[in-house]
Amino acid sequence: MLATPTTIDRHVLPRSLIGRRRHRFFNPEYQFEYEIGQTVVLECTGETAVIAGRIQIMGCIDEYIIEIIGAKCDPLQVHDYQIRDDISRP
Question: What's the Rg (C-alpha) of the chain?
Fold first, then answer.
């Protein structure tokens, strides 16, 4: 059986074993257009979805993680211009 190393040198480990750290540059004064848990409509299909997460990216474009209501699929990542909050508007 292999012995547990006492110290680990990150530089000699393969990249697949090293956890990636995501850099978050978040401006606390920035306001997102949609809130988590808000119901929205997908512009391209007209399907109703719920905001599950949101990401502020460079270039002032917001990305939202949405879950389509009634669908059995993974959450989608969309830009702010691909969804709308007015459910009654066709």
Answer: 20
Per the document, the length of the chain is 90
* Tokens 């074993």, residue located: 17
Q: Distance (Å, rounded) from C-alpha 49 to C-alpha 40?
A: 5
Residue 83: count of CB within 10 angstroms of its CB: 21
pLDDT in tens, 3-40: 766 676 667 767 666 666 555 555 667 788 888 999 99
C-alpha span between 37 and 53 (Å, rounded): 8
Percent of the chain with pLDDT over 70: 63
Q: What predicted TM-score, i.e. pTM, was given to this entire model?
A: 0.62
Cα 11 to Cα 4, 46, 55, distances in angstroms: 18, 49, 30
